[in-house]
Amino acid sequence: MIKSNQHFFNFLLVVFDAVVVSGALLLAWYIRFVSPFFTDGVRTMHFEAYVGLLIFIIPVYLILFLIFGLYKPYRKQRFFKECQEIILSNVIGILIVMAVLYTEKSIHFSRYMLGLFFLFSIVIMSLERGTIRKVLRMMRERGYNIKYIIIVGAGALGQAFADKVLGDRQLGYKICGYVDDYYPKSDKNGLPILGTTKEMNDILEEFRVDEVIIALPNTSFKRINDVIDKCEYQGIKTQVIPDYFNLVQGSRPAFDELDGIPLINTRYIPLDEPFNKFIKRALDILLSGTFLVVFSWLYLILAILVKVTSPGPIIYKQIRVGMNRREFYIYKFRSMRNDIPEKGDKLWTTEDDPRKTKFGSFIRKTSLDEIPQFFNVLKGDMSIIGPRPERPFYVQQFKDEVPKYMIKHHVRPGITGWAQVNGWRGDTSIVERINCDIEYIEKWSLWLDIKIFFKTFRALLKNAY
Length: 465
Description:
Layout lengths: L1 H32 L13 H21 L11 H25 L7 H31 L5 E6 L3 H11 L6 E7 L7 E2 L2 E5 L4 H7 L4 E4 L6 H14 L2 E4 L4 H4 L5 E5 L2 E5 L8 H21 L1 H14 L5 E7 L5 E7 L24 H8 L7 H7 L3 E3 L6 H10 L12 E3 L1 H4 L8 H13 L3 H14 L6
Parallel strand pairs: 1-2, 1-5, 2-4, 5-6, 11-12
Antiparallel strand pairs: 3-4, 7-8, 9-10
Helix pairs in contact: 1-2, 1-4, 2-3, 3-4, 6-7, 9-12
C-alpha cells in the first residue's frame, strides 16, 4: 500500500514537473514577444514553433530530473539539496537544448526567450517543490502521511536514530517506543519501553506500525533473526542499522554488492559512481579543450616571455602522485632560473626563493604558471577541480604524519580545489588542507565544482608564492 502510494505520488510529481516546464516556456515566450519589457518587435519564429519544442524538452528534462534524484522519497531528501539538483538538471537541460538547436541549424529561436525559460524553469520548479514540501509537512502535523515505527534496541544506536527522527519532523516518522530485553518497562528519553523481543508478536498486534527499525549490536544475531521472522510473520517491513560506527565514524558509508554478497564501503565517494565519473570527465575534456583553443594566444605569449627572460626550457616537468597513487609528470611554465643549483624535491618554494626569475615571480603570483596543466587534464592525469597533487617525497612523509592523508588519491588531482579556494595553498597547514580535500571527495557534486570554479578567481592572488 505504501509503495503504491509512493508510485502515485511520483506520477503526480512527473505531471507537475511537465506542467512547470511547459509553463516556464510559455511564460518566457509571453515575456519576450508580448509583454512591454521587450520593445524591438522581433519575432523570427511563430508561436507554434516554440510550443513544438516542448515535444523534445519535456522528455529530456524529466529524464534529467530522474537522473539527478528529484523523484526520491521526500522523507530522505533535504530541500537545499533538492534545489541544487534542480539547478544542475536545468543547466544540463538547457545546454542539451542549445546543442541540438545548433546541430540542427535552428538558429532563429530567440536566445533571450531560451534564457528566460532557463531562469523561470528553475524558479518555478523550486517554488513547486517547496510548496509540495510545505503541504506534506502540514499534512504530517495533522496526522496524515505519517509512518509509525518501533525501534528494537534502546542502547546508544537506537537512541541516536530516535534523536535524528525526533529532531526532524520533515521525515514524517512517529516513534511508538522501544523494544529492548535489558530495560524495564518505563520511559527512555521520553519514549516508552514497550517490552522485550520475546513479546514482539503481542507488541506488533497492539501497535499498528509501518516499519520496525532494528538497532541491536552485531553480536545479537539470533535476536535480530527472531525479530525479523516475527515482523515478516506480521507482514511488517524491517530495516537494520549496521553497528559499524567503530569502522565508519567520521565518514559516509555506502552499500554495495558483489554477486549477491552485500558489502559496506566505509567511505562514500560520489565519483566512484559511473554516471558521476562520466559527467566530470566529459566536462574536463570539454572545458580544458576549449580553454586550450581559446587561449592559445596566451600560451604563445607566456612561452615567449619565459624564454626571453631566462635561458632554459619553457615547460618545467615534475613528478607528482595522482589518482590511485600513480605517479605522473605535471606541467608548468618554468618560473625558476637554471643557473642556480636545484634544492631538490624536499623543500617548499618560499616567497623570497632566489631561484625565481622576475617574470617567474609574476606568473607564480597570478598562477599563470599552472595553465599548462590543462594538457594534464586532457591526458587524464588530472581534473580541473580536485585535491592538489603532491611530490612523492612529501606523500611518503605526510602519510605517516597526517591522518587519512592518502584518501585524497581516490580521485584525480586538480588544477584548483576546495582547499585552495579556502586559503589552504602553498606553505600552509597540511591538516586543514587534507580536511578540505576529504570534504570535497565525500561531498562532490557538480554544484560544488561550479562553486569552486568561480571562487578560484577570488583566491588566485592569495597565499601564492
